[in-house]
Amino acid sequence: MTDPITTTTPMPMPTSTTDGAGLATWDDLAAADPALAATARALLERTGTGEGLLATVRGDAPPRIHPVNVSIVDGRLVTVVLAGSAKAADLLADGRYALHAHQDPAVPHELLLRGRAVRVTDPARRARLVEGWAFTVPADAHVLDLRIEHALLGERADPEAWPPVYHSVRPGAAAPR
Q: What's the CATH code of the domain at 94?
Protein backbone atom coordinates (compact mmCIF):
# COMPACT_ATOMS: atom_id res chain seq x y z
CA MET A 1 0.00 0.00 0.00
CA THR A 2 1.45 3.39 -0.91
CA ASP A 3 1.33 6.47 1.23
CA PRO A 4 -1.24 8.87 -0.30
CA ILE A 5 0.57 12.06 0.75
CA THR A 6 4.28 11.40 1.06
CA THR A 7 6.67 9.77 -1.34
CA THR A 8 9.62 8.41 0.60
CA THR A 9 13.27 7.92 -0.14
CA PRO A 10 15.04 4.87 1.29
CA MET A 11 16.26 5.28 4.88
CA PRO A 12 17.97 2.82 7.20
CA MET A 13 14.78 2.00 9.15
CA PRO A 14 11.12 1.60 8.13
CA THR A 15 9.58 4.96 7.24
CA SER A 16 5.85 4.54 6.75
CA THR A 17 2.85 3.64 8.83
CA THR A 18 2.02 0.73 6.56
CA ASP A 19 5.15 -1.33 7.29
CA GLY A 20 4.46 -2.01 10.97
CA ALA A 21 7.08 0.42 12.27
CA GLY A 22 4.61 2.11 14.61
CA LEU A 23 5.08 5.50 12.95
CA ALA A 24 2.09 7.77 12.55
CA THR A 25 0.97 10.98 10.90
CA TRP A 26 -0.39 14.00 12.78
CA ASP A 27 -3.91 12.83 11.94
CA ASP A 28 -3.10 9.44 13.49
CA LEU A 29 -1.99 11.22 16.67
CA ALA A 30 -5.19 13.30 16.69
CA ALA A 31 -7.28 10.13 16.27
CA ALA A 32 -5.39 8.28 19.02
CA ASP A 33 -5.57 11.15 21.52
CA PRO A 34 -7.53 14.24 20.42
CA ALA A 35 -6.90 16.21 23.62
CA LEU A 36 -3.14 15.64 23.56
CA ALA A 37 -2.98 16.55 19.85
CA ALA A 38 -4.97 19.76 20.41
CA THR A 39 -2.70 20.85 23.27
CA ALA A 40 0.41 19.85 21.29
CA ARG A 41 -0.71 21.90 18.30
CA ALA A 42 -1.42 24.91 20.54
CA LEU A 43 2.08 24.62 22.04
CA LEU A 44 3.76 24.36 18.64
CA GLU A 45 1.74 27.28 17.22
CA ARG A 46 1.56 29.51 20.31
CA THR A 47 3.49 32.35 18.63
CA GLY A 48 1.32 32.24 15.50
CA THR A 49 3.96 30.36 13.52
CA GLY A 50 4.75 26.71 14.15
CA GLU A 51 8.11 26.51 15.90
CA GLY A 52 10.19 24.07 17.86
CA LEU A 53 13.59 22.72 18.67
CA LEU A 54 14.54 19.72 16.56
CA ALA A 55 17.11 17.25 17.88
CA THR A 56 18.83 15.03 15.31
CA VAL A 57 21.44 12.30 15.43
CA ARG A 58 23.75 10.72 12.89
CA GLY A 59 26.04 7.76 13.37
CA ASP A 60 28.44 8.20 16.26
CA ALA A 61 28.18 12.00 16.19
CA PRO A 62 26.69 13.72 19.22
CA PRO A 63 23.05 14.86 18.95
CA ARG A 64 22.40 18.34 17.53
CA ILE A 65 19.63 20.81 18.37
CA HIS A 66 18.17 23.04 15.64
CA PRO A 67 15.45 25.68 15.74
CA VAL A 68 12.85 24.88 13.07
CA ASN A 69 9.54 26.01 11.69
CA VAL A 70 6.85 23.33 11.56
CA SER A 71 3.36 23.24 10.16
CA ILE A 72 0.46 20.82 10.18
CA VAL A 73 -0.75 20.45 6.60
CA ASP A 74 -3.01 17.78 5.13
CA GLY A 75 -2.83 15.86 8.40
CA ARG A 76 0.97 15.82 8.39
CA LEU A 77 3.51 17.51 10.65
CA VAL A 78 6.05 18.96 8.24
CA THR A 79 9.27 20.93 8.39
CA VAL A 80 11.64 22.38 5.82
CA VAL A 81 15.42 22.00 6.04
CA LEU A 82 17.95 23.70 3.83
CA ALA A 83 20.01 21.56 1.48
CA GLY A 84 23.57 21.20 2.71
CA SER A 85 22.69 21.94 6.34
CA ALA A 86 23.77 19.71 9.22
CA LYS A 87 20.13 19.00 10.08
CA ALA A 88 19.43 17.93 6.47
CA ALA A 89 22.47 15.63 6.51
CA ASP A 90 21.40 14.13 9.84
CA LEU A 91 17.77 13.58 8.83
CA LEU A 92 18.52 12.23 5.36
CA ALA A 93 21.19 9.86 6.69
CA ASP A 94 19.39 8.63 9.80
CA GLY A 95 15.86 10.04 9.98
CA ARG A 96 15.46 9.96 13.76
CA TYR A 97 14.33 13.16 15.42
CA ALA A 98 12.95 14.59 18.65
CA LEU A 99 10.91 17.79 18.46
CA HIS A 100 10.32 19.98 21.50
CA ALA A 101 7.94 22.92 21.62
CA HIS A 102 9.36 26.16 23.03
CA GLN A 103 8.26 26.73 26.60
CA ASP A 104 6.26 29.71 27.75
CA PRO A 105 7.53 30.70 31.23
CA ALA A 106 4.01 31.74 32.26
CA VAL A 107 2.52 28.34 31.29
CA PRO A 108 5.50 25.98 31.11
CA HIS A 109 3.90 22.92 29.54
CA GLU A 110 6.32 20.54 27.84
CA LEU A 111 5.90 18.77 24.50
CA LEU A 112 8.14 16.09 23.05
CA LEU A 113 7.47 14.29 19.76
CA ARG A 114 9.82 11.53 18.61
CA GLY A 115 9.92 9.62 15.37
CA ARG A 116 11.44 9.58 11.90
CA ALA A 117 11.53 12.17 9.18
CA VAL A 118 10.35 11.07 5.73
CA ARG A 119 11.43 13.16 2.75
CA VAL A 120 8.66 14.37 0.45
CA THR A 121 9.80 13.95 -3.15
CA ASP A 122 6.60 14.30 -5.18
CA PRO A 123 6.70 17.89 -6.59
CA ALA A 124 2.94 18.49 -6.39
CA ARG A 125 2.69 17.22 -2.82
CA ARG A 126 5.78 19.18 -1.83
CA ALA A 127 4.29 22.38 -3.28
CA ARG A 128 1.01 21.81 -1.42
CA LEU A 129 2.78 21.17 1.90
CA VAL A 130 4.83 24.40 1.74
CA GLU A 131 2.05 26.63 0.43
CA GLY A 132 1.67 29.49 2.89
CA TRP A 133 4.95 28.62 4.66
CA ALA A 134 6.43 31.23 7.00
CA PHE A 135 9.24 31.92 4.51
CA THR A 136 9.95 31.39 0.82
CA VAL A 137 11.05 27.76 0.53
CA PRO A 138 14.09 27.39 -1.74
CA ALA A 139 13.69 24.93 -4.61
CA ASP A 140 16.53 22.75 -3.29
CA ALA A 141 15.27 22.66 0.33
CA HIS A 142 14.05 19.36 1.73
CA VAL A 143 10.43 19.08 2.85
CA LEU A 144 10.10 16.46 5.55
CA ASP A 145 7.04 14.68 6.93
CA LEU A 146 7.78 14.20 10.64
CA ARG A 147 6.25 10.81 11.39
CA ILE A 148 5.45 10.28 15.05
CA GLU A 149 6.40 7.26 17.12
CA HIS A 150 5.80 8.78 20.55
CA ALA A 151 4.22 11.95 21.94
CA LEU A 152 4.79 13.11 25.50
CA LEU A 153 2.97 16.05 27.05
CA GLY A 154 3.88 17.47 30.46
CA GLU A 155 1.35 19.91 31.89
CA ARG A 156 1.81 22.24 34.84
CA ALA A 157 -1.07 24.19 36.42
CA ASP A 158 1.30 27.11 37.03
CA PRO A 159 5.03 27.88 36.89
CA GLU A 160 5.52 26.68 40.49
CA ALA A 161 3.81 23.29 40.00
CA TRP A 162 6.29 20.45 39.97
CA PRO A 163 6.53 17.83 38.70
CA PRO A 164 4.48 18.15 35.53
CA VAL A 165 1.62 15.74 34.97
CA TYR A 166 2.77 13.61 32.03
CA HIS A 167 0.60 12.00 29.40
CA SER A 168 2.11 9.74 26.77
CA VAL A 169 0.78 8.19 23.58
CA ARG A 170 2.24 6.02 20.85
CA PRO A 171 -0.22 6.78 18.03
CA GLY A 172 0.93 3.92 15.80
CA ALA A 173 0.32 1.39 18.57
CA ALA A 174 -3.00 -0.30 19.22
CA ALA A 175 -3.90 1.98 22.14
CA PRO A 176 -2.52 5.06 23.92
CA ARG A 177 -0.06 4.37 26.74
A: 2.30.110.10
